[in-house]
């Protein structure tokens, strides 16, 4: 971390903001936007980065990556169940409780307060979830709007098997080559 006494602001972990876009552009660095935290702001952040980009030793032209949280399943209901496991863990973390990802059944049986329901809704809306075709269609729309040079996806859910299945479904929907998963994950 660079300190303020050296004339620079200290970086405090990953951020997805206009500040990060302006800083990366000013320094001529690649920019990674954590769209899994705020997918609705990805296009504006990437445009800000491109508009303000200054070529430097690292890059002559802007290069931007956007990361999206995804959960694809064989049907919409299962995708939403897995997404709720993740959103419950995020809600717990935000309220200073264990970040442990509950099972879909544990998440479904949890009685939420009104404020917790708002947090869950916000996190659920930040995950691109549904069938593989629905998820890839949403990714394609976001790609068209924001035009990142690279998209990274992070499958979210309860079990390693659900995460792997989600990734495989999306890869198949995108017609990507497959690489066998280690036996320990299956």
TrEMBL record:
Cited Pfam families: Bac_luciferase (PF00296)
CDD domains cross-referenced by the UniProt entry: Flavin_utilizing_monoxygenases
UniProt-listed InterPro entries: Bact_Lucif_Oxidored, Luciferase-like_dom, Luciferase-like_sf
Residue ranges of every copy of the Luciferase-like domain listed in the record: 19-145
Signal sequence segment: none
Protein name listed in UniProt: Luciferase-like domain-containing protein
Organism listed in the record: Streptomyces thinghirensis
Lineage: Bacteria, Bacillati, Actinomycetota, Actinomycetes, Kitasatosporales
């Amino acid at each position: 971390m660079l300190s303020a006494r050296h004339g620079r602001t200290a970086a405090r972990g990953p951020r997805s903001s206009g500040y990060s876009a302006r800083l990366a552009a000013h320094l001529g660095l690649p920019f990674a936007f954590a769209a899994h935290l705020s997918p609705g702001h990805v296009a504006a952040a990437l445009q800000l980065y491109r508009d303000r980009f200054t070529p430097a030793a690292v890059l002559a032209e802007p290069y931007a990556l956007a990361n999206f949280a995804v959960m694809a399943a064989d049907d919409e209901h299962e995708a939403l169940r897995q997404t709720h496991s993740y959103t419950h863990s995020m809600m717990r973390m935000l309220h200073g409780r264990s970040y442990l990802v509950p099972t879909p059944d544990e998440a479904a049986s949890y009685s939420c307060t009104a404020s917790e329901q708002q947090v869950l809704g916000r996190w659920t809306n930040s995950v691109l979830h549904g069938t593989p075709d629905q998820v890839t269609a949403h990714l394609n729309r976001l790609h068209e709007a924001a035009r990142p040079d690279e998209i990274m996806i992070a499958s979210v859910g309860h079990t390693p098997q659900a995460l792997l299945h989600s990734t495989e479904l999306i890869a198949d929907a995108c017609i990507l080559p497959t690489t066998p998963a280690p036996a320990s994950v299956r």
